[in-house]
Here is the input.
Amino acid sequence: EKLFSSFDMIDLQIINGILKGDIYEAIAERENVSLGTIKYRVKKMLELLGKSKREELILLINKYLQTELI
Here is the structure.
């Protein structure tokens, strides 16, 4: 939970987009930021969480959300 609390609103919007299956370009357009910004922020989130792949990020977030809903 501490790790996710360090994310800002844009990070959370990126996570939301990833969970919905959006491509980075769609997320960037919706959030009015560059594609490079999305890629950079995803990379930083992965580093912070100790993950190396987008799929690992998705699994971790889904696991966190399931735990929170119980």
